[in-house]
């Protein structure tokens, strides 16, 4: 099954194997529910560990702490700092999408003027931004992006969104 990144492991916390993670999922309560399966690795094709969630605590600003069943010792988890956490990619309802699926989409306005390509998504605090050349486009469908066109692979900007590139 295909995997999706749900967090980056940024450090350990305490001596009992708790991992400090930076969340990259919009649904951490589901992804880190007790006994949920998570995968740890550099990328989804290089999984180093498969484990069950024992405990999850949200802190703030996309930071949380997670303990994995059977890894309740700092010596067992230190090696995973600076790797990613993945989960199985779930089927979404029509019109829904994963942020990572929007990478490579063209950024256009309502007149089809092209501003670039969404090169990658970066997470700052609890906000998502797309890197478009040297600019950062906030992923905000209320103010900056009028439409996500999955068929044409385009993010269609609002007037305010197009103003970012002027």
- CATH fourth-tier homologous superfamily of the largest domain: RimM
Helix content: under 10%
**Rg estimate, integer Å:** 18 Å
Mean pLDDT: 90
For the biggest sheet, the summary is: 6 strands, antiparallel, barrel
CATH class of the largest domain: Mainly Beta
Helical segment tally? 3
Question: Any overview of this molecule?
Answer:
This protein has a six-stranded antiparallel β-barrel with strand order 1-2-5-4-3-6. Strands 8-7-13-12 form a four-stranded mixed sheet. Strands 9-10-11 form a three-stranded antiparallel sheet, with no helix packed on it. With 166 residues, the protein is mainly beta. The chain has helices spanning 28-31, 74-77, 159-163; strands at residues 3-13, 18-23, 37-41, 47-60, 63-68, 84-88, 106-108, 114-117, 120-124, 127-132, 135-138, 145-149, 154-157. The N and C termini lie far apart (42 Å). The chain contains three helices and 13 strands, in the order E-E-H-E-E-E-H-E-E-E-E-E-E-E-E-H. The chain has two domains: 3-88, RimM (Elongation Factor Tu (Ef-tu), domain 3, Beta Barrel), CATH 2.40.30; 99-163, SH3 type barrels (Roll). A hairpin with a 2-residue loop joins strand 10 and strand 11.
Summary tags:
166 residues; mainly beta; Elongation Factor Tu (Ef-tu), domain 3; SH3 type barrels; 2 domains; 3 helices; 47% strand
List the helices and strands and how they pair.
Blueprint: E1 3-13, E2 18-23, H1 28-31, E3 37-41, E4 47-60, E5 63-68, H2 74-77, E6 84-88, E7 106-108, E8 114-117, E9 120-124, E10 127-132, E11 135-138, E12 145-149, E13 154-157, H3 159-163
Parallel strand pairs: 7-13
Antiparallel strand pairs: 1-2, 1-6, 2-5, 3-4, 3-6, 4-5, 7-8, 9-10, 10-11, 12-13
């Amino acid at each position: 099954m295909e995997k999706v990144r749900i967090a980056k492991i940024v450090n350990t916390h305490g001596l009992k194997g708790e991992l400090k993670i930076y969340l990259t999922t919009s649904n951490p309560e589901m992804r880190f529910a007790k006994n949920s399966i998570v995968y740890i690795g550099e990328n989804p094709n290089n999984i180093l560990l498969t484990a069950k969630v024992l405990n999850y605590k949200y802190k703030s600003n996309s930071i949380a702490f997670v303990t994995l069943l059977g890894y309740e010792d700092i010596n067992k988890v230190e090696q995973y700092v600076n790797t990613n956490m993945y989960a199985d990619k779930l089927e979404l309802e029509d019109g829904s999408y994963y942020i990572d699926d929007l990478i490579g989409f063209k950024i256009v306005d309502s007149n089809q003027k092209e501003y670039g390509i969404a090169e990658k998504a970066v997470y700052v605090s609890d906000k998502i931004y797309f890197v478009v050349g040297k600019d950062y486009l906030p992923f905000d469908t209320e103010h900056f992006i009028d439409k996500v066109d999955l068929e044409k692979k385009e993010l269609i900007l609002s007037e305010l969104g197009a103003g970012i590139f002027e």
